[in-house]
User: Fold this.
Amino acid sequence: MNRAESKRQFWLREAIIISAFTVVVFAMPLWLTWIGGYEALATKIIIFAIFTLGFDILLGFTGYLSFGHAAFFGTSAYVTGLVFVHWTNEILVALGASLVVTIVLALVLGFLTLRRTGIYFAVLTLAFAQMLYAAALSIFQDWTGGDNGLTMSAQPHLLNIRMDGLNVFYLTAVVVVIGYIVARQIRRSPFGLMLRSIKENQTRLQYTGVNVMAYKMMAFLISGIYAGIAGWLMVVYEPYVATEFLHWSLSGDVVIMSVIGGVNTLLGPMIGAAFMMYFENVVQAFIGELWLLILGAIFVLIVIFLPGGFVDGWRRIRKALGYIVPSRRHNVPDSPESMRKRREHSERGSAAGWE
Assistant:
């Protein structure tokens, strides 16, 4: 197969994947009702799919686990709400204002947190997000409404089109399709390759002269922008901003969604978001508060027996049916024993090379 034919097949495959994704997303109000859901839930699922998609660019590509991504979601939601209350109900104006604030916040937090890795980075992001949450309840409560949240009286509009019902759904559907296309482009670009190299061994990458910090900042910024757009859409969907949008529990939910679906797969975290939103809003009606216990058990079982999430489960099923499935590394940190074996193997290889 020559290069032109290979390139043609690649773009054909990309077109099929994007088309299938678009059809599934836009048909969600139909098929979701068939399994007990409702139309408004489809919009909420897509909003969190955008949130987790951006989160996967940070965690899946670079391996940096953030427990403070609610800071971008909540801050963008508050800025959007304040624009609606004090300025205009035009959502494009609110989008511009929320993006500016989100970008500034991402640059500041990235500069302060990305100098650390592992648990230190995770705790730092958590601390800054909780500081913003506390500020919303105290220092800025005259603007944020404190515990009562921020309520809008006017319905948001997009160029004189009332944003409610299916109009909001189609807006979120367009945004998630664009976001998915952009994320796929990032993954296969040289920039995406550098991000995955950071996940593998950023120290070795630094020794080659690469400005690792700049790449990490860009990944953090892009991930924050996705979260900010999700926060903007949440207020368009429901003209109310709750203080929980800044709480650490929301960041934890995004982590759970990503792990359940499959980190570093782009589709996986979005599937995890759909699963968790369906579980919380539909299954809960039948089993009550027991849903938290069952969801926790599912999360534990997936981490232990299916570390690649639902996407890894689908790959295993295909492999069992005889399909050729390329192998891929698990998307959760290695156990100490696995890390020790890999280190010993590397040392033996180095020793053999010197001999």
